[in-house]
Amino acid sequence: MKNVKPGIQYFYRFETQDSQSPTGRTKTLPVGQVENLALAVVTRSNYTFGYFNAYEVIAADERVDLVVHLGDYIYEHGVAGYGGHVGERIGRAHEPSHEIITLADYRMRHALYKSDTCSQAMHAQHPMVVIWDDHEPANNPWMKGASNHQALEGDWATRRAVSLQAYYE
C-alpha cells in the first residue's frame, strides 16, 4: 500500500468480480512516543468449547488499538477429541470432524474458526498481532513429532509445514 501514514485509522474492504467484503477498520502505528496504548489480549480459542463472546466485546471497544493473540488460535482435535463433547452439546463441532493433518484439513479448520461472527467482527475492527503456539500444528510438538502425532498420520515435518502454511494464509 502506498501513501500509508503513521498513526492513522484506515477503512478497507476486499472486492472480487462477484462479491464485496464488509468494511473493515485498522490503525497504523504512530511514530515517536505514545502516551496510551490499549491492547486486548486473547488466547486459547477452542471453537468447540463455546462462543467467542469476548471477541464481540473487543470488536465493539473503540479504545482498543491492537489485539494480541497469544496462540492456540485453532485446535487440531477431531470431534472425538478435546472439547468434542461440549461442541456436540452446543452445536459447535469441529470441521473436518477428524483430527486435522493435511493442508486441506488445516484450511478448513481455519475457515471454520473464521466463520464465527464475533471473530469476524474483531478481525474487521482491529489490527492483530498473532503468535502461534502448540495447537496450531498439533499438541505439544517438538522437532521430530508431537504428543498426538502418530506414525500413521504421515511425516511430522510435512504436517508441521502444512499447518503453518494454512496459518499464514
Give a summary of the structure in a few sentences.
The protein has 169 residues and is an alpha/beta fold.
Word description of this protein:
There is one protein chain. By secondary structure, the protein is α/β, with parallel strands linked by helices. 29% of the residues lie in helices and 14% in strands. The chain is built from 5 helices and 7 strands; from the N terminus they run βββαβαααβββα. The strands form 3 sheets. It has a 3-stranded parallel beta sheet with strand order 3-4-5, with no helix packed on it. Strands 1-2 form a two-stranded antiparallel sheet. The longest helix has 13 residues, at 156-168. It is globular. It starts with 8 loop residues before the first strand and ends with a helix. The mean pLDDT is 95.
